[in-house]
Amino acid sequence: MLPNPYRPGAGMAPAYLAGRDNTIAEVQKVLVALQAGYAARSVVYYGLRGVGKTVLLNRIENMADEAGVPSEYMEIAEREDNFQKHLALHVYKLIHKLSWKKKWENQAKRALSILKAFSIKYSSDDISMEIKLEAALGIADTGDLSNDMTELFLALGSVAQAEEKGAVLFIDEIQYMKENEFEALMEALHRVNQKGYPLVIFAAGLPKIAKIAGDVKSYAERLFDFIEIGSLPDAAAELALTEPARRFAVKFTSGAVRKILQITQGYPYFLQEYGKWVWDIKMDATQITEEMVQKAHGSFEKSLDGAFFKVRHDRATPRELEFMTAMVQCGELPCTTKDIAAVMKESPQTISPLRAQLIHKGFIYAAERGRVDFTVPQFNKYLERIHGLN
């Protein structure tokens, strides 16, 4: 029996990463700069759920490891209540990864003493107890988060510059950072850039993150490259399907490929999910046909409904579900708050807090001015199925 080469899962790397060649090439340029100890612009990847943002971050992390560029990876939880604690831990690890040369011992000691003061102020004594140095009081423990995070990043950046090799911090689900934390992060990174330190952030988040950044700091677009990660064009989506099968001498008919691309709309997670089920259907056949694709459709849809969609649906309150089903009943997406209010038979002002709440929780996003759409591809079709909407 052949292994199933398709891997649907949260952040799980596909057997073949299709359609991201240009993005990977740009990352390689950043890593080359960091290898030489030069500064580079940080990057935020944004897009809907299931388009492969986390997969991309993981690939870049592997690239950083291969290039010998120290890195740390952190994910922001929706109900994150101690970002500073987690940040202190990852900075601690980065300093140790960077400062292995004896001649840079003084820079490392200074950085660690600043980190100790920061961790005592903002997190716990877990890290500070590991640092056998006096805390550099009055630098990164003032209680002003923007100042203190800036001092912490400058300390880390100075070690990276001394080592003449940069460092990378990966931040997934960055949209869940609190506004004051995101503002402090941007101010710290801005100052690091001004000093020319080789410290770069690669982050990923939902579409709203670009607007959040712009609202917090006017220079956000100069601080980060904001790169949209979307569904795959047909040629890349076909490769995502056919290349994993090719390894085992299994081919898709053109009709089978066309059918899967039509149903999945090129979304990477959906392609992996459909590939998984059609692979199981084919048994020992060496060719996947359109008939097999049709036969696998029920299992594909049931799997999405029972996991990918349901876990999000069940987090919504009844009022939030009422808002989202009204979105579906509006007809074409994205839709306006005015149209949603008309379906709900309420005023736009009454439902505005619901709209803000759903955006904050990551269910919907402002796709255009005054219009909203779902952050999960085809979530409208799921709501139609389970709520019997027309």
Structure description:
The chain has a five-stranded parallel β-sheet with strand order 2-3-4-1-5, sandwiched between helices. A three-stranded antiparallel β-sheet has the order 8-10-9. A two-stranded parallel ribbon has the order 6-7. Strand 9 and strand 10 form a beta hairpin. It contains 17 helices and ten strands. It folds into three domains: 21-228, Rossmann fold (3-Layer(aba) Sandwich); 234-312, Helicase, Ruva Protein, domain 3, CATH 1.10.8; 316-387, Arc Repressor Mutant, subunit A, CATH 1.10.10.10. The model has no long low-confidence stretch (mean pLDDT 89). By secondary structure, the chain is an alpha/beta fold. It has helices at residues 21-35, 53-67, 83-98, 105-122, 125-128, 145-163, 179-195, 208-216, 220-223, 234-246, 254-264, 268-282, 290-313, 318-329, 337-344, 348-360, 379-387, and strands at 42-46, 71-75, 167-172, 199-205, 224-228, 251-252, 287-288, 335-336, 364-368, 371-374. The two termini are 43 Å apart.
Write a concise synopsis of the structure shown.
This protein is an alpha/beta fold and 390 residues long. It has helices spanning 21-35, 53-67, 83-98, 105-122, 125-128, 145-163, 179-195, 208-216, 220-223, 234-246, 254-264, 268-282, 290-313, 318-329, 337-344, 348-360, 379-387; strands at residues 42-46, 71-75, 167-172, 199-205, 224-228, 251-252, 287-288, 335-336, 364-368, 371-374.
Task: List descriptors.
Helicase, Ruva Protein, domain 3; Rossmann fold; Arc Repressor Mutant, subunit A; 390 residues; 57% helix; alpha/beta
